[in-house]
Each structure stands twice: as structure tokens, then as C-alpha cells.
Amino acid sequence: MAQLIPVDTFDLIIFGGTGDLAMRKLLPALYHRDRDGQVTADSRIIAASRGALTRDKYLAMVKKSLQKGLPKGEFDAAHWKSFKDRIHYVQADALAHANWGRLSKLLAGHEERVRVAYLATAPSLFGPIATGLKSNGLITTNSRIVLEKPVGRDYESACEINNAVGECFSENQIYRIDHYLGKETVQNLLALRFANSLFEPLWRRGAIDHVQITVAEDLGVGGRIEFYDRVGALRDMVQNHILQLVCLFAMEPPSSLDHDAVRDEKIKVLRALKPMSVDEVRSSSVRGQYTAGAINSNTVPGYIDELGGDSSTTETFVALKLEIENWRWSNVPFYLRTGKRLSGKLSEIVVQFQDVPHSIFPEQKYNVTPNLLRIRLQPDEGVQLSVMAKEPGPGGFDLRPVSLDLSFAETFGVGYPDAYERLLMEVLRGNPALFMRRDEVEAAWNWIDGIIEGWETSKQKVESYVAGSWGPPASSLLLDRDDRAWYSDDKT
Ligand code: BG6
């Protein structure tokens, strides 16, 4: 088991304290870290929200959601007793700063502590909350602010938010979360690339034919449909999680793990993403939306039915072909796709290496398939390398691909902590390496804006796909046109 480094005493204020993120992710993550003894006795969690709730009512909500959400057997009544003592509730309307008296009173006298304001709210409230903290004199030298994704809905709104928050906090106090960066397997990508000399000479054009990134979910949009309908898959998943995976995969080796060393390399990848013209957007992107279907033999409704509306052009699926314009990656296509209500939950990066330059097995030439490296992010985390081998036999030379298979679960024998556990502890420690810097967020939006503009200009159609499939047929055609196919489709 990895080291457990305790964090300094803190006051963590969660704005949006009654919301889905707080209940489903933040409080369970804090419960786990507390149970493992990483949190000092005096540290406090202060939930802030608009509603007039008593502390007891709020605690009852938290208890219920922990009992429901924690893995079976993990809710411990004895531990809950001490954990709940840390939790406070204050009514604080993000837009009515004059009424933050209770919050100010609770924080008074604790200025020496690490003070974190976690904004688990709509991005439109990031600026107003930062301003409220400033105008109420609640920002100390030990303060940090955490912004949940998405930061804005395009380049312009992201800049506005960054400017507004930047008026109150310095850049090194601002932690922009992308929870994929807190996932163990995503960090393992750094280990795979930079703690092994084996891959680096091959990690480039000339050796790699193309790269596929799939982030598939079998769940639909559930209770977040109102939010989701305004956002869609491109903004919800590609602008942040998937582009961060591209960055970690494609960046040059940083000189150290220092936060700016890593982020300096990531931003170079984002700036090298080839902008797409309207025609290129049309030919290199697919938008999809699920219709009713079946997943694991359960019938599920279509997106429009869930929305309860007549129509919507919001995409729940997107596939893209992107290019990185630099020496390492020139002409190596990256195919990306993500979607809701697909055949299964699966996130993986598949690297297809080049064909052998000349086959010495002429009668077998159609059997020599390129080597594949599959980096499985979730579930069944691990790495798999397929190599060609000769099938045993007294005559002939029959070849077939076989796998060198590394399963992290079997090797390390431990479950993975949720990404938020790691990220919350990093904020409390003051280590921004796993968070997005302002320039990264803005560069990612800049590229995404080009795609949105292309879709709007050409009125690109949202193609239907049946829930439980791998997306619209156009997604397979995107690769088919290049004589390639998605590798993950046979995996679930
Ligand atoms: C969130 C998106 O950021 O990531 C959700 O808003 C998505 O729509 C989720 O379901 C996926 O995260 P994970 O950790 O389950 O892969």
C-alpha cells in the first residue's frame, strides 16, 4: 500500500454542499481519508448552500447518502460518530455576499489553517463566490480555491471566469479539477512512459501507426439531464478528460514531476492540436444521440424520452480524428470517442504500431497483425501488449497474436482509491501538479470552440444510435475510411 502522508489541519468549505458532487464524491472521499487517519482531529468540513437547513438535517442527508453510496460494509456507525462532528452547515447564497455572516463567524479565529473553498457549483457562480470570499475578508495567505470542471462553456466564458477568480486569488492558489488526473491508472501513464526506457524510442511517428482513445459509459445522463442538455459530450468529456489523456500520452518528457514542468509540456500538446476548418470538422467528427435500447438485457429509454422533451440536438456521443502538429506526432492520427449508453463502461488507450516493413512469412502475410499496446484505464485496469508468436506444431509456420497481460489488480492486490480522495489531499497539501493551469483550460477551449463552430456553421447532424451499441455507424466509418477499425468494440 502506498504511503499515507497526513495533511495539515484545514477548513474545507464546500459551496454546493447539498449537491450531487458533494454527496456522491466529495463527502465519501473525505470519509475514507478520515477513516484512514489522514485528517487531523481539528479539521472541519463546512458545507455551504442556499437552503435554510439545520445542521442536524444536513447531517441526516450526508449519512443517508454515505450509507447508500459507500461500497457495501464500509459505512461504520462508530466512525460516522466522529466524522459527523467535523461537518458544519451554513446557509450562504453565492449571489448575496452580505449574508455570509455565519460563514465568516465560523471561520473567524482560524486564519492560520489551510482554508480551501471547493466550488461544486455551476461555473457561472465561480466568479461571484470568489468575489464573495474576498469582500467578506475570508481569503487568507493559506487559502486555496478549487474549481470543478467545466470551467466555462467556451474560450470566452472560461477567460471571464479565470479573470474574475484571478482578481481574488493568485494562480498558484487556484486548483482546476479534472478528476481523470486523479485516477491511479491515468497517473500510471506517466509511470509507463517515464519510468521505463523501453517505450520512449517507439513513442512517435515512424513506430506508431495511430492511437485510439475510448471513454465509454453504459449509464445514461440520469438526474443531470438538465445540465447535460446544455453541455453535451464534447464539452462534458472531450474538452477536459479526453484532452488531458491526449496530453499525458503525447507530451515530451518533462524534466521533473514539478507541477509546472509537467504542465509546461501538456500545454505544448494543446497548442499543437491542428485546428479544424468547417469541412474538416464535417469529415473528422461524428455527433450522436442515443435512442431506446437494451444494456445488459435491461431496456433503457432514449435520450429524448429521458429529457421529457420533443427534440434536442445535444450530442451524447462524439467521435473525432485529431492531429498533433509537431515533429513527434506529425501524420499520426488520434481517434477519440466517448458516449453515454454505450455497450459497456470502458476507458482505454490503444496504440497500434506500424506493420512490419517486410514479411518473411509470405504465405502468412495476412496473419501478421501489427503489435498493439492497450492501456486499460477502467475497469480491469492494466496494460496489455500483443505480439506475434508461432503456434506450436511440427510443420508450417502458423502465426497468431498473443498477449503479454499485466493486470494491476492481480499484481498489486489493492483496490484503487477514488480520484477525488487523491485530488482533495493534493489540494490540502498545496500541490497543483494534478490540476489544470489557466493556460491549459483556455487552450483546450480554443480548440474545442473550432469544432463547435464547425458543427454550428454546417448544421452537422446528430446521428442516432441505439442504446447498448458502440455509437452511430458513422463512428465506425470514420476509421473505416482510413482502413482502420475501433479495437475496443469487441471488448465488453
Ligand atoms: C464527469 C462527467 O466529469 O465524468 C460525467 O461530467 C461522466 O458525465 C463522468 O459520467 C465519468 O467519470 P468516470 O470517473 O466515471 O469515468
Please render the helix and strand layout as text.
Elements: E1 10-15, H1 20-35, E2 44-49, H2 55-69, H3 77-84, E3 87-91, H4 101-107, E4 114-119, H5 126-135, E5 143-147, H6 155-166, E6 174-176, H7 184-194, E7 208-216, H8 225-250, H9 259-272, H10 278-284, E8 285-291, E9 293-295, E10 298-300, H11 303-307, E11 317-322, E12 334-339, E13 346-353, E14 372-378, E15 382-390, E16 399-407, H12 408-412, H13 419-429, H14 438-458, E17 462-466, H15 473-480
Parallel strand pairs: 1-2, 1-4, 2-3, 4-5, 5-6, 7-12, 8-17
Antiparallel strand pairs: 7-13, 8-11, 9-10, 11-12, 13-14, 14-15, 15-16
Helix pairs in contact: 1-2, 1-13, 5-6, 6-14, 8-9, 8-14, 9-14, 10-14
The protein binds 6-O-phosphono-beta-D-glucopyranose.
Residues 217, 236 line the site of 6-O-phosphono-beta-D-glucopyranose.
CATH architecture of the largest domain: 2-Layer Sandwich
- Which ligands, by name, code or SMILES, are bound? 6-O-phosphono-beta-D-glucopyranose
Largest sheet: 9 strands, mixed
- The 3D shape can be described as globular
Average pLDDT reading: 93
Regions with pLDDT < 50 over 5+ consecutive residues? none
CATH fold node name of the largest domain? Dihydrodipicolinate Reductase, domain 2
Number of helices: 15
What share of residues is helical?
25-40%
- Determine and state the CATH class of the largest domain: Alpha Beta
Strand content: 15-25%
Separation of the first and last Cα atoms: 30 Å
Q: What is the topology, as strand order, of the major beta sheet?
A: 16-15-14-13-7-12-11-8-17
CATH superfamily of the largest domain: Dihydrodipicolinate Reductase, domain 2
Count of distinct strands: 17
Number of domains: 2
Structural class by SSE content: alpha/beta
Could you tell me the radius of gyration in angstroms? Answer: 24 Å
